[in-house]
Amino acid sequence: MKKAKAHGFRKAQIELEHCLTCRGKAVVQGVFHELVCIDCNGSGWVMAGSRLVLSTDELVTQLSLKLQQAQREIVMLKQGSLKSGSSAYYQQNNRRGAGGSNYTGD
Ligand SMILES: [Zn+2]
After folding, report:
1. Dihedral angle at the C-alpha atoms of 36, 41, 46, 50, nearest 10 degrees?
2. Residue 43 Cα, ligand 1 centroid: separation in angstroms?
3. Spacing, Cα 16 to ligand 1 middle (Å)
4. pLDDT 10s digit of each residue in the chain, 106 long?
5. Residues 85, 51: contact at Cβ < 8 Å?
6. What is the largest CA-CA distance in the chain?
């Protein structure tokens, strides 16, 4: 198993891409069970370009950074759909929104 040499580096975000072996699922289909994918340390992610597997401690930090990034994107997407008002999901979950009410006002 190849390991990325991350020691001595500052905690900079490493560009990640989906592991080809498990296609980002972190597990592979074994004979009876799904098995943890060893090519990506069970994370589903490898370093972009080199496709090296990250060590577990490095992986924790990188996944945290990636998760934070993803959460920021989710917030931005939610805000975007709030502004446009075109999201069916939003209207479904907030019927007080303009045009989303069955209330006749009579
Ligand atoms: Zn994998």
Report:
1. -120
2. 7
3. 12
4. 666 655 555 678 899 999 999 999 999 999 999 999 999 999 999 999 999 999 999 999 999 999 999 999 999 999 987 766 554 555 555 555 555 555 566 6
5. no
6. 71
